[in-house]
Amino acid sequence: MINEFYREMTGRESVIRQFFDYSRKRAAELGPDSVLNFSIGNPSVPAPDSATEAMQTLLREMDPIALHGYSPTLGQPSTKAAIAESLNKRFGMNYGPEHIFPTSGAAGALSHALRAVTKPGDTVITFAPYFPEYIPYVTGTGAKLSVVPADIDSFQINFEKLEELFAPEVSAVLINSPNNPSGIVYTTATIQKLAELLTRKQEEYGHEIFLITDEPYREIVFKGTDSPFVSSYYDNSICCYSFSKSLSLPGERIGYLAVNPKAKDAELIVPMCGQISRFTGHNCPSSLMQLAIEPVLYTTSDLSVYETNAALLYEALTEIGYTVVKPGGTFYMFPRSPIADANEFCWTAAKELGLIIVPGDSFECPGHFRISYCVPTEQIEKAIPLFEKLYRRFS
Amino acid sequence: MINEFYREMTGRESVIRQFFDYSRKRAAELGPDSVLNFSIGNPSVPAPDSATEAMQTLLREMDPIALHGYSPTLGQPSTKAAIAESLNKRFGMNYGPEHIFPTSGAAGALSHALRAVTKPGDTVITFAPYFPEYIPYVTGTGAKLSVVPADIDSFQINFEKLEELFAPEVSAVLINSPNNPSGIVYTTATIQKLAELLTRKQEEYGHEIFLITDEPYREIVFKGTDSPFVSSYYDNSICCYSFSKSLSLPGERIGYLAVNPKAKDAELIVPMCGQISRFTGHNCPSSLMQLAIEPVLYTTSDLSVYETNAALLYEALTEIGYTVVKPGGTFYMFPRSPIADANEFCWTAAKELGLIIVPGDSFECPGHFRISYCVPTEQIEKAIPLFEKLYRRFS
């Protein structure tokens, strides 16, 4: 018989998906100009030529048996060494290849990291607003997800609520900075305060509490933003990275996790990830992709359009009257909805204006909406009068 | 704290791995000529040029944003349609794109198929000798693995023992034909008898019993071998395939599962796989690889060396005196050990002669050893006198 748990889930479409589907339906009925889609976090700039060339060179020059052969269970040694070196150079860390585990994007990295440092029945804390896939990533390990409500004035950490939610069964804390959906980057002060709290809680409970950092937007940080490398501030940390956004390769499913060399049992965690893969059927990212990212570790796509769009949109929205916490990076903005029910606000935008934005409820932060501005700048320019119309309509 | 279950596993190295490591150590100490390695199932022939060209054409001609963008959760529609069509043409099936789910190789396919049709506490039956990774694949879903002992005279199914092991909590049966490690292909008669038994058990227990077929060696079948397409014979079936062996792309992690259109709830299973991925962090194979296999679905690498090696080795070993069931495909052979303890036999071969073969104990079939003959034919020729020496040594 088919599994009822997964069968039941197929009936429940995510709200983001509903907006996306509406946008496609409307475009099909009324023409592509009838829709300005801001619902999807898919990079809008191409992969850098150097990444394409790296793939082409491998295909042209390397022995295909070696190129496409099984990579070692714990990842291509040369790729692991190159990733470690790049992190050490850029962030003053001390990673060795033995601390790096190549994964199928950040999803793969998080799934391994969470299984490595929790056991069924544990609690993992995260912070609203958060990427809704954290629910299956965490519950898939058998742990529970506990959510700290948002500090909607800054989208930094609400420490008072965090302290309240802490309990002995908390084995990991999961953060995402730069953040989807708020675009906010945790400041050095925030990270220091978090590290102090976690250190204190480790002593209080007598066990390690791991900090898992979801960092796919690390390279998309705007000028002047304080953007600390989190693992520098807390030893028991695992950094989860993806090349999806920085190299515009989301479909290639290539990322890694990096275990802090100072973490408890640091040398065990990557071998444990090799074991975890056997149970989930993950078994390494593409061997071509592992090798192709090696020569482009210090490169990104031309990410400047995201900063241009952020500035344009932020200025326009605040001038119209929207309350917006200024994003420090990513390609997301998370304004306050002019009415309490962001769901109603977003459906009105979609149906009356063809403006596709998604309600904050999906990120456990009601009363807000997410704009994904990984789009051509002209789309922002077209959308501004519609955002104005919408604001007037509701205030 | 780190997870004790996975930590403990890192200490337990597989026997296959121990032999592989010994072979590397010996080669490093005594030179590469001191070792004839028959322990690894890595294709020894390159990917066909057409596969490399397909990748190169995509990289040269396709818009990189589309090429490397997120593929839909349930897979690239054109790839799914092409796979369905190729199976329909070749095997007279009636798959639609909605029955095909691209996966990270057969490991990904099996992990999804098992989760889709079992629930924690169920039992999955498989047949010795079997690929040892079935243990984590099955237990990772929360189900138990129950193993039917081998029929060592034919390596077809031991139906008497299967019948004894059947119970109401059996929700799936997992077969691997052509088989690793025996090289045997289940005959049409075997598959028909299995289908009859499963149909009868479904009626007896009043619930579906799914047949999951692990088919990465489907294209490596030797002349004259009866090789039925299993899903033609039983409706509640899911075929799990990988291009690792047929296109020599094991490191690229590209395969699929195909749900029999006549299966109960056939139209639900692929959407369920999309949900399952969220819990395991799997999220689709590489988008480049999904698109690249489309034009090469009717192609394989030049697989003829495996048949040449099989014939040479089978003839030599039986002439020496070994008892061998003649393989019908794959690149494995599974002779009986001249002494009961195959482990001792294989270590003697490794240490005295540098002949690296692996004991059948790893495949839950003691008293046998596996030869992986995905090697240049000259290696077979060099090995034959050593197999003879070994046989004389023990008999």
What summary fits the major beta sheet of chain A?
A: 7 strands, mixed
Number of strands of chain A: 12
Task: Classify the secondary structure makeup of chain A into a structural class.
Answer: alpha/beta
- DSSP helix count of chain A? 14
Brief digest:
The structure is a homodimer of 395-residue chains. Chain A is of the alpha/beta class.
Describe the structure.
The structure is a homodimer. Chain A has about 400 residues and is of the alpha/beta class. Chain A has helices spanning about 5-10, 15-30, 50-60, 65, 75-90, 105-115, 135-140, 160-165, 190-205, 265-280, 285-295, 305-320, 340-355, 375-395; strands at about 35, 100-105, 125, 145-150, 170-175, 210-215, 235-240, 255-260, 330-335, 355, 360, 370. The first copy, chain A, has a 7-stranded mixed β-sheet with strand order 2-8-7-6-5-3-4, with helices on both faces. In chain A, strands 9-12-11 form a 3-stranded antiparallel β-sheet. In chain A, helix 7 links the parallel strand 3 and strand 4. In chain A, helix 3 (about 50-60) packs across helix 11. Chain A is globular, with a radius of gyration of 21 Å. The mean pLDDT of chain A is about 95. Chains A and B meet through helix 1, helix 3, helix 4, helix 6 and helix 7 of A and helix 1, helix 3, helix 4, helix 6 and helix 7 of B.
